[in-house]
Amino acid sequence: MTFNFFNVRKLCTTTALYKNVQLTKDRFPNLKRGSYAVVNSTDVDYFTNIVGVNNFITGEEVKSYNEDWLKSVSGFSKYVLKPKTTEQVSSILKYCYERGIAVCIQGGNTGLVGGSVPVFDEVILSTSAMNKIISFNKLSGVLVCQAGCVLENLMNYVQNEGFIMPFDLGAKGTCQIGGNLATNAGGLRLIKYGSLQGSVLGLQAVLADGQVLDCLNTLKKDNTGYHLKHLFIGSEGTLGIITKIAIQCPNAPKFVNASFIGLESFDKVLSFFSLIRKEFSGSLSSFELMDSVAIKSVQKNIGIKCPINDDLKFYILVELSADNNYINHSIQEFLEKALNEEIILDATVADQPSLIQNLWKIRENIPESLLRYGYVYKYDITLPHENFYEIVPDIRRRLEKLNVKAVCGYGHLGDGNLHLNVATSEHNNKIASAIEPYVYEWTSKYKGSISAEHGIGFLKSKYLKYSKSNLEVDLMRKIKNNIDPKKILNPYKIFPQNDSN
Known about the structure:
- The protein has 18 helices and 16 strands.
- The protein has helices at 24-27, 41-51, 63-66, 86-99, 151-160, 177-182, 190-193, 196-199, 229-232, 266-279, 292-301, 326-340, 353-364, 366-371, 391-399, 429-435, 438-445, 470-483; strands at residues 56-57, 80-81, 103-106, 123-126, 133-137, 142-146, 200-206, 212-215, 241-248, 255-263, 284-291, 314-322, 346-350, 375-382, 406-412, 417-424.
- A seven-stranded antiparallel beta sheet has the order 13-10-12-11-15-16-14, sandwiched between helices. Strands 5-6-9-7-8 form a five-stranded antiparallel beta sheet.
- The protein is globular and about 75 Å long.
- It starts with 23 loop residues before the first helix and ends in an 18-residue tail after the last helix.
- Mean pLDDT is 93; it is low at 1-18.
């Protein structure tokens, strides 16, 4: 077992690999634009008056707002509005509701299912200018902030106060807290701190007609009827625009330890997970699985070296956090025993922040490394632990005669969330047809979820039936139609559209 650390090469930043992204309307020609109003000069004057010239975006700059991070879908909106306050959002939505103008809500635009970009020419309402921290109570640990705050900025802020955010994401440097709530993001710490939904004490949201729903409660306990905040967490902007959030932050642990471990089989991975969860149940904050294909992709395309033997089949990144330093000595003894019993084959341990961060960079750079092949089909699913990895070799066999660069699996094994990725040089309908709906049928067969933390958005809307019954979808539609009867908020998202592609 090695305890030597490594230097991570400076990452080179890349922009889009594609000069032109096919318009969603062309990729899905049977999809029809709703009967929404087309923005005219009078509308432009009104919007400019509300948000100001600097926060009204048009022209070439709108292009980046029209395309998703994966460069898989693209709308053709001409206008981006960047309000700074709830009142401005309210004025915009009230006007759009009266005029019948469709609105696409966008945060950090890090989603993977086309939920944060327009499908046609919807006006884009970006929350990025709503980025103020309103208050932080050091006694209760409750943070109140605007929806456009970048997650990493919030993490740094509360860390300086001796607290941590109850969740962490690979996209933390770009994603926004409002979008995190809108998709009910899970992330890297769910195994210890639970779902994001459980940490949100309250929120403020603007409804389609401009009414402001103020549920910005900061109380830990409030048993007064329906908790309407839950309607908006996971609603992906289809019921209202979240503008403010109150979130419970735990005290920062005094000691954190990370281990990078290599194993020879998935059975060994499950055995190791069972053992470490039993030994460190109160301290286990992350348990991330990566297969060899994912690790080799990071090494080849990003330039980050694997800190241990790079010829193994599976790798695990384990993070422990506690208020006493027993974990550092205990984890080394635990790993040595696992090594002697041949449960694991290699490992390295880090207890200094910079070294821990280096280990996490491997895991966090997997998505970017795969994207550098050209195009990635990404599937964010939840499966029972015993079936967690089975679909990866199954998909490899299914695609072995097609021009595929890489098929890999990684993700949050601790909560059953697998990220299945198929990397190719470009989008190919034959490959797409071989994967979908097969991957969702497979997931449904094992009682899994077709979306673990990125939502349904546009790209998964026609597959909702694999995770929701007809009754559930019908009730969801009724809620949507009641709160947004003109359907101006994030149209074409979540609910199945009349399209055969």
